[in-house]
Amino acid sequence: MAAGYHFDPSILREYDIRGKVGETLSDADAYALGRAYGSYAVRQGAKRIAVGFDGRLSSPDLADALSRGLQDCGLEALRIEMGPTPMLYFAAYTLVVDGGIMVTGSHNPPAYNGFKMVLRKKSVFGAEIQRLGEIAARGDFVDGIGSESHHSVMDAYIERLSADFAGPDDLTVVWDAGNGAAGEVMRHLTERLPGRHVLLFAEIDGTFPNHHPDPTVPGNLVQLQEAVKREGADLGVAFDGDGDRLGAVDASGGILFGDQIMLLLAREVLRDNPGAHIIADVKSSNVLFDGIAAAGGKPVMWKTGHSLIKSKMLELGSPFAGEMSAHLFFNDRYYGFDDGLYAAVRLLTALKRLGTTLKAFRDSLPHLHNTPEVRLPCSEARKFEVVNEVADRLSARNADVVAIDGVRVNREEGWWLLRASNTQDVLVARCESDSAEGLARLKAEVLSELRLSGLHPDLF
């Protein structure tokens, strides 16, 4: 048995592996992951694994080391070109491979990177990620002589993205890749679509020189909003660093949050799948869950996390699911994985099928008072302890709590949520009410609970 290798425990997350390059993540970690994942896969009969990477400066070297680790397990590492995470998923679903690993830091700052993994078309997450850590620590590796090959999937992926477009042919749409990994695919996709398309920051640049590619943060959408107004566009869409999430703004520059985008898409999906289960994460608005029911669907509240959502979709046979963070999953005419570019195509299609504009849809939504996802820095060890302490205090008071992921507290004036992030050293809070006064009371309660656990944040 080979010598063991120990990952920094902070990088083994719930649904992916992620760390800061040069501090908690290195090329040696990538090689060890290739050995651990490769050994795990070989023992399940795997022979060929697809490897993709995003545009971060550290990604090519990490992908090379990962590939070497897979080969030293006797596997063929099938290298696809640089691109978004969903292009790697597409390869894993459509090529003759047994799994895939994407080197990506997702929406984290440029110094971070990581890995998203699938095996047999299912996400590797949770206990399986911990098992990979154990395989590495024991040095329990399969040895072999593998190989590396290269295969381009970009053209086939773009063809598949455009195949389900049935939207208006006269829209002006602004597309913002934020210099992330979706840029090149976005450029070629829009060449195939009717209408007028204005592209922002399509050049892939891992330093993200124009703005950070996270469309859930309003400040990252300012340039998109300006361009929509300047161009007289009907809407704008934006993607995160690895292209698996979608942001949107309407013709006036108004931002649609992830759960609002979900509601529009759910209405379209339910036209073809009446009575279906539609899944949304615990951070989503009651407007979404109520709207799904009103459209004839069965709303399901579930845990946050792309791997967790995908597993729940398989369990329930759901045609569509999403997260407040704008991961959107179509199992309706697609493969069930989160794909921001495909979601953009379906968004345009939904506007035509539902006979609306994005602005008219946004204007039709109930006017609620809510916060965005507010993030409070908190150490990896402490963040889960704080949530547990809050949960214990709420239980002692017999509060109305949904505890599937952190604590979501229902009050007469609305609800509030506190949960520990699985991707960053932060606590995430969100509040929603039907009145400004109610929202103030909910925010005060969140702050009170955090102070009781020794934190003194200026969150809101």
Automatic annotation (TrEMBL):
UniProt domain Alpha-D-phosphohexomutase C-terminal: residue ranges: 373-447
Indicate the segments forming the Alpha-D-phosphohexomutase alpha/beta/alpha domain, all copies: 12-125, 156-253, 258-364
Query: What is an example of a GO molecular function annotated in this UniProt entry?
Result: magnesium ion binding
User: According to the lineage, what is the superkingdom?
Assistant: Bacteria
InterPro entries from the entry? Answer: A-D-PHexomutase_a/b/a-I, A-D-PHexomutase_a/b/a-I/II/III, A-D-PHexomutase_a/b/a-II, A-D-PHexomutase_a/b/a-III, A-D-PHexomutase_C, A-D-PHexomutase_C_sf, A-D-PHexomutase_CS, Alpha-D-phosphohexomutase_SF
Q: Which UniProt keywords apply?
A: Isomerase, Magnesium, Metal-binding, Phosphoprotein
Name of this chain's protein: Phosphomannomutase
Species name for this entry? Limibacillus halophilus
* Upper taxonomic lineage: Bacteria, Pseudomonadati, Pseudomonadota, Alphaproteobacteria, Rhodospirillales
